Amino acid sequence: MPDGIMGQRVLGSSGIRVSELCLGAMTFGTEWGFGADETESRAVYDEYRAAGGNFVDTANNYTNGASEEMLGRFIASERDAMVVSTKYTLPTDPRDANSGGSNRKSLRRSVETSLRRLGTDYLDVLWVHAWDRCTPEAETLRALDDLVRAGTVLAIGISNTPAWVISRSNAIAELRGWTSFCALQVEYSLLARTPERELLPMAEHLGLPVYAWSPLARGALARDHTDESLAALTLRMQRIVKVTREIADELGTSSARVALAWVRRQGLLLSVGARTAEQLRDNLGALSLQLSDDQLARLEEASAISAGYPHDFLSQRRAMFEPDALPSMAGALQSTGGR
After folding, report:
1. Domain NADP-dependent oxidoreductase: where (predicted)?
2. Is 122 labeled as catalytic in the residue annotation?
3. Which one is catalytic: 45, 62, 88, 211?
């Protein structure tokens, strides 16, 4: 990928143009015992902007608020050129039961705080950070829609939520004329492929772009493992890490780039954080990395998961639902005991 050039995408039904790689800002700040100080975080941000990126994602709870505050200073001189997203729902004060949740009280408090920290009067995207079982979907959707109608929030997304809740929520929003979720964030990597069972098919059907968070599996697919650190992984994880490293050596590149390029080939967008500008520069190289069919097949073989029920059940009986097989369906059901 040439310097300063990054592909653009449309963020689902919002129509907002965003860069194909989103910069995750969870590493902005050292309050959680990792991450980067403001000087290094600024270098990461500048590296991202130099590559043509315009979409930065933070959250109200990241590094106890330091992430939003830093990002606010970074974007101050170019606010309108940036697509800024943050999140709410996860608790921020263990002493206050209403500091989290997807209810209206939590939402208002969180958004007001985020706007102040970010130094802006609107959010381009607000994500529901996780499913709140205690708040009905309609209550959350109506509260979010009020913010969109007021111009405080331009678009809404959702993360860490079951597929049935997301699909039900968007159906409710459509029927009532409220704002629908325009995008989805999921944990997805070679080590975490379970979203393939329900979440990714749902997103494809609903036309929701999907951002993969932790596509490097919290660094497990990026670091150079010692024998000791490798032994601490499960056998499946060891196999995936070794195959990823082998392919990286074949291509003369890093394991991180191979892992990120694989996620892109699955049709997902990337949300990538970095502690240093050098790390981000390496990650950006994945946007131009091409994996061969053989390399993709080896990664698939190493990381494949069972689809699980009911997908395995339906796959085994797929022929029963093909047009040419319909006349013999009764016989097939008899032979399987109807099961």
Report:
1. 20-302
2. no
3. 62
